[in-house]
Structures are given as structure tokens and as C-alpha cells.
């Protein structure tokens, strides 16, 4: 049985690398807040110097992300707060389970996303067209199936007990 790597130490620096289709989309510095060997939680400021307006939410300089990654789940949940600390909502990336090496978290984006507003009133499935166009279902049907099941699970939890119940 393989041994599990030692958890990352809270309050230490980490790097998050988000990869999509084999290419790095973004890399940013974060601070480890929690790691039990399965779930890793980091905090990081919005990584771009500009505003990204999705229509249903704006990510902007000064926003703080508390990001939860699992070594055994096919998603990451990012809790988004504005500069004053008010919760904007949760942005969920459907990903392969996170790979952690040294203090680097490698998260492979599988195109599907879910947005849940702070009040839980808006639960939006995102980028299903991109997922279809990616061809993952043909290249790796097992991964595609895991991705769809993860999105379905997150939506069910968001509409039921709320995403905070997973954290």
C-alpha cells in the first residue's frame, strides 16, 4: 500500500498551478491554512490585476479566495470574499484530484464549473459546452464520467445542505 505524503504545514507558502488541456492557465502564490492528508485548504488573493466579470459575479483585485482541494475528489471549491470580508459565493472547478508535490498544488481543470451565490439562491452549471467540445468523453471516458458525477454531486449538495457542509 503506497504511503501518503506528509501534509503541508499551516501558515506556510504554497503555489497553485491550474492546468487545462496540458497547458498551465495560471500559477499563483497561496498560504496553506489546512491539510489533513486528503483535503488541502489555501488562501490567495485574486490572482489577476484586472476585473473578471462573469455577469453573475465579478472577481476583482482585493478579493480573497479560500480554496479547498481534495486528493481523492474530482472538484475544488473556492469560497470568494470581497475586500471587506463579505461572502460573494462559491466557484467550484471540476478537476482531477489535486496532486501535491512539495508545496505545489497541481489542479487539472476539466472544463465543468458550478457557481453558487452567497445566499444559495443561484446555482449555475457552467461551461458544459466547453466540456463537450474538449473531447474528454472520447479520450478518457472514465475521467469524463467522474467529472459529470462530481458536478451533479456538487449541484445536489448546493441545492440541499449547501456547499459549506462539505468543508
Description:
There is one protein chain. The chain is α+β, with helices and mostly antiparallel strands and 167 residues long. It has one domain: FomD-like (FomD barrel-like fold). 18% of the residues lie in helices and 46% in strands. The protein has three helices and eleven strands; from the N terminus they run βββββββββββααα. The strands form two sheets. The protein has a seven-stranded mixed beta barrel with strand order 1-2-3-6-7-8-10. A two-stranded antiparallel sheet has the order 4-5. It is globular. 28% of the residues are buried. The mean pLDDT is 94. This is DUF402 domain-containing protein. One of its GO terms (molecular function) is hydrolase activity. Keywords: Hydrolase.
Structural class: alpha+beta
CATH class identity: Mainly Beta
Point out poorly predicted stretches: none
How much of the residues is beta strand, in percent? over 45%
Total discrete domains: 1
Number of helices: 3
By CATH, the superfamily comes out as: FomD-like
Largest sheet: 7 strands, mixed, barrel
Range of helix content: 10-25%
Alpha-carbon distance between the two ends: 27 Å
Secondary-structure element sequence? EEEEEEEEEEEHHH
How confident overall, as mean pLDDT?
94
Radius of gyration over all CA atoms, rounded:
15 Å
| CATH domain topology | FomD barrel-like fold
- In total, the number of strands is 11
CATH architecture: Beta Barrel
Short summary:
This protein has 167 residues and is α+β, with helices and mostly antiparallel strands.
Summary keywords:
167 residues, alpha+beta, FomD barrel-like fold, seven-stranded mixed β-barrel, globular, FomD-like_sf, DUF402 domain-containing protein
Amino acid at each position: 500500500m503506497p504511503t501518503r505524503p506528509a501534509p503541508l504545514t499551516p501558515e506556510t507558502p504554497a503555489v497553485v498551478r491550474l492546468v487545462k488541456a496540458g497547458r498551465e492557465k495560471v500559477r499563483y502564490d497561496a498560504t496553506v491554512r489546512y491539510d489533513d492528508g486528503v483535503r488541502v485548504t489555501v488562501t490567495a488573493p485574486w490572482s489577476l490585476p484586472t476585473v473578471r466579470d462573469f455577469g453573475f459575479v465579478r472577481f476583482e483585485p482585493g478579493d480573497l479566495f479560500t480554496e479547498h482541494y481534495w486528493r481523492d475528489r474530482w472538484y475544488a471549491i473556492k469560497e470568494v470574499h470581497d475586500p471587506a470580508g463579505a461572502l460573494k459565493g462559491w466557484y467550484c472547478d471540476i478537476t482531477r484530484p489535486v496532486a501535491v508535490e512539495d508545496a505545489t498544488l497541481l489542479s487539472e481543470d476539466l472544463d465543468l464549473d458550478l457557481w453558487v451565490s452567497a445566499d444559495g439562491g443561484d446555482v449555475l452549471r457552467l461551461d458544459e459546452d466547453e466540456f463537450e467540445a474538449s473531447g474528454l468523453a472520447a479520450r478518457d471516458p472514465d475521467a469524463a464520467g467522474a467529472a459529470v458525477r462530481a458536478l451533479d454531486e456538487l449541484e445536489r449538495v448546493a441545492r440541499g445542505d449547501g456547499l459549506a457542509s462539505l468543508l
